[in-house]
Each structure stands twice: as C-alpha cells, then as structure tokens.
Amino acid sequence: MDAQLLGVLLSPPVLALLGLCIGSFLNVVIHRLPLMLERGWKLESAEMLGVEPGDLPEAIGLSKPRSRCSSCGHRIAWFENIPVLSWLWLRGRCSACKARISARYPFVEILTAALFALVGWRFGATPTALLWCGVVAVLVALAGIDWDTTFLPDSLTLPLLWAGLVASALGWTLPLGEAVWGAVVGYLSLWAVYWLFKLTTGKEGMGYGDFKLLAALGAWLGVKMILPIVLGASVIGAVVGMAMKVSASLREGRYVPFGPFLAGAGLVVMLAGSNRVLDWLGWF
After folding, report:
1. Under 8 Å CB-to-CB from 213, ≥6 apart: which residues?
2. How far is CA 166 from CA 96, 183, 220, 224, in A?
3. Which of 54, 132, 218, 279 is least crowded, fewest Cβ atoms below 10 Å from its Cβ?
4. Phi first, then psi: what are they for 100, rounded to 5°?
C-alpha cells in the first residue's frame, strides 16, 4: 500500500472514527458477554447434574438479536444507533418510551475513540498501531465487564495473553524473553498476593481473572512494567474506593473490582512508553 495512503488511513483522526464504531460494539460486548457466559454455565451445570436447567437468560449473541430498549423492548433503528450522535439527538432517552439511556454508552464510545487516536499518535501510521488498537479494545471491554460483574472472562483475558506472546515471537513488539517473563511475573505476583492475603485473613482479596489480566499486560508491555502497573492500579483504585465510600456508592460487600484499574494503568504505560514511565518513577 502507498505510504501516503497508509498515513491517512492510520492517522489519529481516522483511528478516532474507527474507535467510535468499535466503542459502540464494545458496549454490546460489555452488556451481552456476561449474559452469554451465564447461560452457558447454567446449561453445563444442569447437564453435569443430569437435571433440567432452571431460569435461563435469553439466548443471545453479540450480533443477534438486534439491540432494543431494556424498558419497553423497542427495536433500535440504525439511525438511533450512530455512536454519540444518536444519544445526543435522542437526548439520552428511548424514542418510544422515553426511558433514560445510560450516559455510559457515549462515554465508552468517546473513550475508545480518544484511546485509538492516542495510539495513532504514539505508534504512528504503521500496522503496529492497529495491533495496539486491538489491545485497547479488549482492555476497555474487560474494564467495563469487571466493573459491572466483578468478573474477568477467560474468553478475553487468555486470547489477549496469547496474542501478546505471539506478537512478540513474530517480532512485532517486545523481545520474546521480556514478554514471557512479563507474563510469568505478572501472573505469579498477584497469585502470591492473593494467597498471602487469604492465608492471613481467610478471605479472598481478588479473583483469578486479575492474575490473567496482569499476565496479559506483562506479555504486551514486558516484565519491567509489572510493578509500575500494579502501583498505578493500586493508587488509583484506593482513591476511587475512598471516594465511593465517602459518597456511599460502594456496592454490597464494600469492594471495588481491581481489573478496571489494572487495565487503566496498563493503558497509561502503553501510551506513555516504558522509558518515560521508568523516568517518572526515577528508575531509569
């Protein structure tokens, strides 16, 4: 492909438009994937036990059925599903029943667009930028799902981990040794914290999905970035948790999922670059 054309197609403004569209799809993933997994788990459990499954969530996929209002069931037309613009045009309400549409939908779209544009600025007009846009999309989806459900699905964390190792082996990102050790140290560091906390208190402080997410971030960003990611996620998580406690918005059980903060810290490290992060910390 002509270098000039490639430069246009992978420029930050074009990637931002792509991010808006991908962000719209990520809203679907965040909402539907947990429901799909829940249905699958119930069916598998009933089959193993040899009993009839109880109440099951509706059989849905990521593409079918068409999006509809959760309040009245109104099927959303294509012109009501344009990223950000449709939400503004509808004034954040269903066109049929006037039920409120969460502002999180345009937020995810705008966030993904901004991150895609930053990836274009950080990595330039190269195919590698598209690779990192894929990483961004998965991290946004994981953060949204974990925030809603406190669950990080293997169907996203494990492909992200293996993709990081494969990309390294193909010479697209880090040296393979750094990626492998990043995955190993990422997983084992939180695994050790988990068991230390459990043996000390008798409680579980985090889920296994957090181990896998940090391992995936290590595979993409390298072993040197594990500690900065954990430190950044811990500080941001503590601040958000205290703010939610003060505002009485902590969910039942008084906990905040760690995955969104791991994903956020990973995105900061990715966009800033490892050398700059180490320089900020005075470790370079």
Report:
1. 142, 152, 157, 160, 259, 262, 263
2. 47, 12, 10, 19
3. 54
4. -70, 135
Amino acid at site 17: L
Cis amide bond preceding 65, omega within 30 = yes
Rg (CA), the chain: 20
Going by C-alpha positions, the residue among 226, 220, 213, 219 that lies closest to residue 259 is 213
* Whole-number Cα distances in Å, 167 to 92, 146, 173, 208, 268: 40, 25, 6, 24, 20
Distances (CA, A) of 232 to 19, 120, 132, 191, 270: 25, 24, 20, 18, 13
**Phi, psi of 68, deg, nearest 5:** -150, 165
What pTM was computed for the model?
A: 0.92
- For the four alpha carbons of 38, 31, 63 and 33, in that order, the dihedral sign comes to negative
User: Are residues 140 and 267 in contact, defined by beta-carbon separation less than 8 angstroms?
Assistant: no
Which conformational region is residue 73 in: left (phi greater than 0), alpha (psi within -120 to 50 degrees), or beta?
A: left
Classify 75 as helix, strand or coil: strand
Q: What is the pLDDT of residues 155-189, one digit of tens each?
A: 999 999 999 999 999 999 999 999 999 999 999 99
